Amino acid sequence: MFNYDDLFQWQRFITPSIIKIFYWLAVAMAVLFGLSGILSGFGAMFLNPFSGLLMIFGSVVGVLVGVIFARIAAELILIVFRINEHLGEIRNRDEAR
């Protein structure tokens, strides 16, 4: 993953190594909030069945949207680092000439 020395030296980025952890944390949060909404929807069904069903449906859609947006955000961050790597390779290739 990364060494302890990487925290104090700026030769290597640590974000690409740990972005997967943040992605899975975001997915877990989206699922937990969705489960909370689903349980609230079941509770609301005792008062008004239609609003309870809407809450359940909205929670399921919210989980799906949350997971997709977490993936998009993680990929955008990784794209920035990949662009940086490719630009470094181009610079090194041009300097070698």
Give an overview in words.
- The protein is mainly alpha-helical and 97 residues long.
- Helix content is 80%, strand content 0%.
- It has two helices and no strands.
- It has helices at residues 15-44, 49-96.
- The longest helix is centred in the last third of the chain and has 48 residues, at 49-96.
- It is elongated, with a radius of gyration of 21 Å.
- It starts with 14 loop residues before the first helix and ends with a helix.
- The model has no long low-confidence stretch (mean pLDDT 88).
Low-confidence stretches: none
**Secondary structural class:** mainly alpha
Broad shape: elongated
Mean residue pLDDT: 88
| Strands, count | 0
Radius of gyration over all CA atoms, rounded: 21 Å
Give me the number of helical elements: 2
Order of helices and strands: HH
Topology:
Layout: H1 15-44, H2 49-96
Helix pairs in contact: 1-2
Offer a few descriptive terms.
97 residues; 2 helices
Structure at a glance:
This protein is an all-alpha fold and 97 residues long.
